[in-house]
Design a protein that fits this description.
252 residues, alpha+beta, Alpha-Beta Plaits, 2 domains, three-stranded mixed sheet, two-stranded antiparallel ribbon, 8 helices
């Protein structure tokens, strides 16, 4: 069986209870950032939000792209793609360039601006829970099945079936299926997605492909920038390691 997994969020079933929001906070040990979860925003301490648009509620989180632009632009490999489909981040490799934030078509990654050693933070689709045979905390907490999790092919079939059997209730498109080359998060809505704050008119082609075309037009000397950043990363890591060793020697 394929290990590729996915989430399906259905706006028509969401009652705006905030269970997914609370479950995400608890699972990731994130502090409360707003007294009213409907007024909260994605941040280094909030990985998923529920936003209200009149009588409708929309979830926002990392879309876990099939070919993530954050992975392709990171010069030190801090971002990677898990076998489950989740896009993961390794803060020990990060040099703080924030290219991932600029490259993400869904504007998801957030930076810890208030810390002396900041990291980029975002949803991981509960990759550790998935590998342990569980489902993401948000899907487990949802009382109405507005958020479903499972094998990607199966949730895709569920999405298609819901639209075909209730055409009056759904806008005829599955958001996330084609946008920016596709993702592991699919969304159903009764109205056009831009009305719920989702990024509209994204190309169907994976964003890294567009980046590669642009890079082909840049003089080769610019490529030295990646080498420079990689060198700076190594020097920074080495400096921190030396400082740690010196501290340990002083404590002996």
């Amino acid at each position: 069986m394929s290990k590729k997994k996915g989430l399906l969020f259905d706006v028509t079933l969401c009652i705006g209870c905030g269970s997914c929001y609370d479950a995400c906070k608890q699972k990731n040990k994130l502090p409360r950032t707003n007294s009213n979860f409907l007024s909260d925003h994605l941040s280094a301490n909030t990985f998923t939000v529920v936003e209200q648009y009149n009588d409708k509620y929309a979830r926002k989180m990392c879309m876990h792209c099939d070919e993530p632009s954050c992975v392709s632009v990171c010069p030190v490999g801090a971002f990677s793609k898990s076998e489950t489909g989740a896009v993961l981040y390794d803060g020990d490799k990060c040099i703080g360039c924030r290219y991932c934030m600029q490259a993400c078509p869904h504007k998801v990654p957030r930076y810890e601006w208030g810390r002396t050693q900041p990291r980029v933070k975002k949803c991981t689709m509960c990759d550790d829970r998935i590998k342990a045979g569980k489902i993401p905390a948000c899907a487990e907490a949802c009382p109405t099945e507005a958020t479903l999790f499972g094998d990607f092919d199966k949730i895709f079939e569920v999405a298609k079936k819901r639209i075909s059997e209730n055409k009056r209730n759904y806008y005829p498109h599955i958001y996330g299926l084609d946008e920016a080359g596709g993702s592991h998060v699919l969304i159903l809505s009764p109205v056009p997605f831009e009305q719920l704050g989702y990024t509209p008119k994204l190309p169907k082609e994976p964003m890294p492909m567009l980046t590669m075309r642009a890079m082909e037009k840049i003089p080769p000397v610019v490529g030295l920038g990646g080498v420079f950043l990689g060198g700076m990363y190594w020097l920074t890591k080495r400096k921190n390691q030396i400082a740690k060793e010196e501290k340990e020697l002083k404590e002996l």
